[in-house]
Specification:
The structure holds 2 protein chains of 2 kinds. Chain A is an all-beta fold. Chain A is built from no helices and 11 strands. The chains are: A mainly beta, B mainly beta. The interface between A and B is medium-sized, with 21 and 19 residues.
Chain lengths: 112, 111
């Protein structure tokens, strides 16, 4: 059963804490993406990766970091430098960049 | 700044009628266009992609693309209450490897 999984579904962060959001895909896609969505807003690109061991900053990369050590996995770390992290985080993948993107179920991050 | 513009709505349509959603984009070299549906609290799901001028039909959905006028639209025939959602338009950026996203149009189908 192919698809994209994200975990956890909900994540609570304490002030000054780094947290990591998981994204795994078994679609054999080369490209992966992280987006942030705030209430009533569209999608904003945080980071994207076209291929293993390579990634690029999106429009709002400050306060976030990623790695792409395996084709299937693209974890996102929300660092303490991100002062307003409360949002819905979406991971997506595609065969190649600019092709159809498929989304995981999302992770909702809340600050305690 | 390359942009994709959508009317935020809400667009209210009676059940059984045709819902028409519009999207304009600024990048003249864009070649790929996508419509996604997003239910409240859920992730976006692809409805249709379109790459050539004209109409593309898939069941009750029709995407229309006019590159000269730089707009893409989505028609939903025989609208159902289950079509109530936010519809996101995405367009490829001709100069890098990203999609440019509109903020979405909220559609409400009234029984």
């Amino acid at each position: 059963d192919g698809g994209i999984t994200q975990s956890p579904k909900y994540l609570f962060r304490k002030e000054g804490q780094n947290v990591t959001l998981s994204c795994e895909q078994n679609l054999n896609h080369d490209a992966m993406y992280w987006y942030r969505q705030d209430p009533g807003q569209g999608l904003r690109l945080i980071y994207y990766s076209q291929i293993v061991n390579d990634f690029q900053k999106g429009d709002i990369a400050e306060g976030y970091s990623v790695s792409r050590e395996k084709k299937e996995s693209f974890p996102l770390t929300v660092t303490s430098a991100q002062k307003n992290p409360t949002a819905f985080y979406l991971c997506a993948s595609s065969m190649a960049t600019q092709e159809t993107q498929y989304f995981g179920p999302g992770t909702r991050l809340l600050v305690l | 700044q390359k942009e994709v513009e959508q009317n935020s709505g809400p667009l209210s349509v009676p059940e059984g009628a045709i819902a028409s959603l519009n999207c304009t984009y600024s990048d003249r070299v864009s070649q790929s266009f996508f419509w996604y549906r997003q239910y409240s609290g859920k992730s976006p799901e692809l409805i249709m992609s379109i790459y050539s001028n004209g109409d593309k039909e898939d069941g009750r959905f029709t995407a229309q693309l006019n590159k000269a006028s730089q707009y893409v639209s989505l028609l939903i025939r025989d609208s159902q209450p289950s079509d109530s959602a936010t519809y996101l338009c995405a367009v490829n950026d001709g100069s890098n490897y990203q999609l440019i996203w509109g903020a979405g149009t909220k559609l409400i189908i009234k029984p």
